[in-house]
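Researcher: Here's my situation. A collaborator sent me these components and asked whether they could plausibly form a single complex. I don't have experimental data yet, so a predicted model of the whole assembly would be a useful starting point for our discussion.
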Amino acid sequence: MRWEEKLASRTARMEASAVREILKVATSPGVISLAGGLPAAESFPLEIMEELMGAVLGRYGARALQYDASEGFFPLREALVPLLAGRGIETSAEEILVVSGSQSALDGMGKILISPGDAIAVEAPTYLGALQAFNPYEPRYVQIETDDDGLIPEALDAALAQTSVKFVYLVPTFQNPTGRTIPLGRRKQIAEIIQRHDVLLFEDDPYSDLRYAGEPVPPIKTLAPENVVYSGTLSKTFAPGLRLGFCVAPEALMHWLVIARQGVDLHTNTLGQALASEYLSGGHLARQLPKILDLYRPRREAILEALANSFPEDFRWTRPEGGMFIWAEGPAGLDTEKLYRRALERNVAFVPGKFFYVDHRDGLATMRMNFTAADPATIAHAIELLGQAIAEELHG
Amino acid sequence: MRWEEKLASRTARMEASAVREILKVATSPGVISLAGGLPAAESFPLEIMEELMGAVLGRYGARALQYDASEGFFPLREALVPLLAGRGIETSAEEILVVSGSQSALDGMGKILISPGDAIAVEAPTYLGALQAFNPYEPRYVQIETDDDGLIPEALDAALAQTSVKFVYLVPTFQNPTGRTIPLGRRKQIAEIIQRHDVLLFEDDPYSDLRYAGEPVPPIKTLAPENVVYSGTLSKTFAPGLRLGFCVAPEALMHWLVIARQGVDLHTNTLGQALASEYLSGGHLARQLPKILDLYRPRREAILEALANSFPEDFRWTRPEGGMFIWAEGPAGLDTEKLYRRALERNVAFVPGKFFYVDHRDGLATMRMNFTAADPATIAHAIELLGQAIAEELHG
């Protein structure tokens, strides 16, 4: 039997992404990869894991290994309240839903909200994982224009006036893939626009804790609480392998997100949640985060300095105050997918930018580079090699 | 804004089940619950968890906390090969997909295979969690008749001749909710039928390790390997809170199951997978399983003895050699939902059987009782109280 012939109509929208293949190649031995989005292994609190495990078993015993509520392990939901308050989001444990990585909140949003053909507004470029989560629910996308300050509010306003969208999807802080942060002024405009159009915003905020310079900007959730589903993660500040995310949604949606979760995996793994609740309430995050920032800060400085030294004058790139990514754009006519192959011959990998656009004919001259996975010297070396590949690609 | 008005069309199929409410009530203080499907907390290998954690950190270090492949943590996939071989399923690590509890394999199957309106064949009664996983993908169900030996092959054959189904969903061993096991003869018939009709079978096998008496029966996967997606779990023999399931599927489907998983949660939590790989490869399961069986065996004996003593003669019930559930049927005219409320006044809970039928007008006189969560004396007392409630309900 050719089981492929039995696939659902939606499955055609789920083709393996070229990026998946790029990321596979990028992990080949000898390749310096600026392609992935991995936190550095050195950022994990390995040395306290056994202590956390002991504390969890002592405090919760068998409960840490048992089935638990779809809404999340209650002590973790309680421990997330002050974390959210630190970002300006006043909420209660009951209003927080724990999810299996923020990816699972994206899947839940798609599942409960998107009927085939519904429109979703996204930044251009946008986070690829969000498209992968939404695609099976067969939306069409409205790409909203961006500039160095991220989403352009006037473009959003015009798009919402023209098209009825199910929701707007944004990564407002240290965006993946660009590293851009939407400034407060624009956030206020966006809050006003979504309220005026009575539109829901999914605010995906995985990176805001990773700030190496400058001042925090409040989440849009704080500016339009009833119109925003806010999502965060512990993947960057604890450990991604635990698959722990969380979200705060208007009550009417929370009900359905919980039911959707039940069908997908019953609930997020209890042991990971119990470890995270100890990590947060025991003050470990407060001690670990400065170490993570100290680890990444010189990596950001290294990549920015190397870019200034090695990239040609007709390149532009972002200078984010945090997060994990730099976004660069070469001169018109440059094809970064070809550049990617040339860079790989030099054992350096990045992600060609076009994959972050809904329409892959956009962003042909753009590229995303991660600066958290490698040490400063390696990053500097990789950028130097990339500069050589660029020179060769442009001037042959 | 009334966000409910923005819900996707599929969301109407996802209403909170009445069972969810029943299970909530059943966990109230003072209530003896035979309603849930929880493994006993005493079955968890709590005393070795710190040792496992130490072994995992020593062997894998940061890798146990990092992002990992959507297919699963490779050492766990390797450790599952001999476990599957012990059930007669010859496979390789590369052919095994780790999922976030077998619930997530059900979601994946629904996502990649079900277009709205597609038919799925299920036993009557069937596992409720499967319906919850499939419903968002808007199938219609074909109920296949069962008897004391589970699915009736002739009924399946007739249904497949009449209706083209996307797949058949079965729990052939110690079924939830009935506890029934399909005997080898019928399995051979089912294997022949699905091959002849060129139909896919999803064989959900969470309970086969929990055998307290009798001889194992081979999975249908061993009889029709190319037509079966086989799914198992570590929830009953390690810890459900880790959310670890696995499946073996024909290659063409595995590809799509992996892509679907990527969109839903990227991958199953790495730490849990690493702990499980140590649990399996370190011989801990082989030591723990006999303890679990010794724990549950007297509970099964207690419920069967209590039923014989306390339930009236016009009741019939299953006598499973394993698993977690007994299924009982009272005389025609009995409404077990009314009985449920009467039982609750006596502080005993079970699940009325109609909720396990696609059509809730079926199985009005049936009920599911769990026998693994409480100790033998408590079970015996609960069944005695239930017997009193039944007598009152039937004879007023």
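Model: Some features of this prediction you could bring to your collaborator: Residues 24 and 318 of chain B are 26 Å apart (CA to CA). Chain B has a mean pLDDT of 95.
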